[in-house]
Each structure stands twice: as C-alpha cells, then as structure tokens.
Design brief:
The chain has 101 residues and is of the alpha+beta class. It contains three helices and four strands, in the order βααβββα. A hairpin with a 3-residue loop joins strand 3 (64-67) and strand 4 (71-73).
C-alpha cells in the first residue's frame, strides 16, 4: 500500500459505545468530512480523510488534524477548510486557526 502524502483526521465525537454524540458531531463534522474529501480530490491532493473518536478539545470543535504536519485546527467550517487546503498546497499552515503548537 502506498501511503498518502497527508492524513486528515476529523473529530466526529465517537464514544467508547460507538455513538457519535459530542460537540463536533452536533456541529456538522460528518458533512465536513465529505466536503474535505471532495475538495482534496478536486485539488488533486494525495490525502486520506478519516473520521475519529473524540479528540478531547470539544470547546474548540469541530477539530481537524493534518498529519504528518501535526496541524491541529479548531472551529473548522467549509470556508476555513478552503483556506487550510490552499495553505497546505503551499506547504504552510493557517496560523490563526491552529489550536496547538
């Protein structure tokens, strides 16, 4: 298997029991996962997009993490995702949306 250049994780608030019930899920993370996947494909980015269990930063959700860069973004929206992917294509981060150093 060829590893993708980037792996984008999107918190979807899954709990141990498997039910998505937290902040990120209730604030549209599921729809954002599809949006990110489609935008990456349209841009020709080599990306795997995955939904995750709770990332434990609910107060700043929905959360998106980009690896291998280790960029943690909070309060993501479609508009922010566009900016984040623009920056990713340029090898940069959108500093104002980062929630972790």
């Amino acid at each position: 298997m060829k590893k993708p250049e980037f792996h984008i994780l999107v918190c979807n608030s899954y709990r141990v029991a498997g039910d998505a019930q937290g902040y990120c899920n209730k604030n549209g993370a599921g729809d954002l996962i599809q949006y990110i996947s489609e935008e990456c494909a349209d841009r020709g980015l080599d990306v795997a997009v995955s939904s995750t269990a709770c990332l434990n930063v609910c107060s700043q959700g929905p959360i998106m993490v980009i690896h291998p860069n280790n960029y943690w973004y909070g309060a993501i929206s479609e508009e922010k995702i566009d900016e984040i992917l623009d920056a990713l294509e340029e090898g940069k981060a959108v500093e104002e949306y980062l929630i972790a150093d």
